[in-house]
Amino acid sequence: MNVEADLLHLLSLRYSVGPKYLAPPGPTAEQWAQAATLTLRAPDHGGLRPFRFVVVGDEQRAALSGLFATGAQQRGQGDDEVERARARAFNGPGLVALIAQVRDDVPDVPPHEQWLCVGAALMNFMNALHLMGLGAKALSGASVSDTAVRAAFCGPGETLASWIVAGRATRTAHPKAGVTASPVISGWQVDQA
Ligand SMILES: Cc1cc2nc3c(=O)[nH]c(=O)nc-3n(C[C@H](O)[C@H](O)[C@H](O)COP(=O)(O)O)c2cc1C
Q1: Domains and CATH numbers, the chain
Q2: Relative to the CA of 14, which ligand 1 atom is closest?
C-alpha cells in the first residue's frame, strides 16, 4: 500500500476511546503541541481562529476536582453525585479543554461558520492523536456549563466546548454498538417538476 492509502485506512479506524479504556501515559507536551498545530489546518473563514486548547496538567487535577464538586453542589446534586463529579476530574491520563470564541459581529462569517471551524479543529486534533497511536474522546457533560468551571477556563465571549481525554488505549477501539454506516453523500437531485 502507498502512504496515502495507509493514511486513509488509518483515519478510517479512528473511534473514540473513553476514559475507562485509557491508560498512562497521556500525550507528552510535544504531542499536545503537534496536535494543536494541526488544528490550524481547519478551514477558517476570515482567519478568526475561533478556538484554543488548554492542557490540564496532572498537578492541576485536584484543583479541577474542587471546581467539579462545587459545580455539582450548585446544581443541587447529592453527596454521591458530588463525589462522582469530583472523581471525574481525574479521568483520562491526559486532559485538555477546547475553548471556542464564536462572535456574532463578523459580517461575512456568521456563528455557524465559526462553529464549523471549531468542529474541524477538534477533528484534526483527535485525528492527530489517533495517528500518534493514542486513544482519545471528546466529552462534555454538565461540568462545561458550571459557572465556576467556565470562569476558570473562559474569557469574555468564550465557551467551554468540550473536554478531550487522551492516553494509551487498552482495547481496540470500535464503533459504538448499533451504529451502522449510512450514506452521507449523494448526487444533487434536481427537482424536475
Ligand atoms: C463536543 C462533544 C461533546 C461530547 N460529549 C460527550 C459526552 O459527554 N459523553 C459521551 O458519551 N459522548 C460525548 N460525545 C461523543 C463522543 O465523543 C463520541 O464522538 C461518540 O461516542 C461516538 O464515538 P466515535 O467518535 O467513535 O464515533 C461528545 C462529542 C462532541 C463532539
Answers
A1: 16-56+93-169 (3.40.109.10)
A2: 26
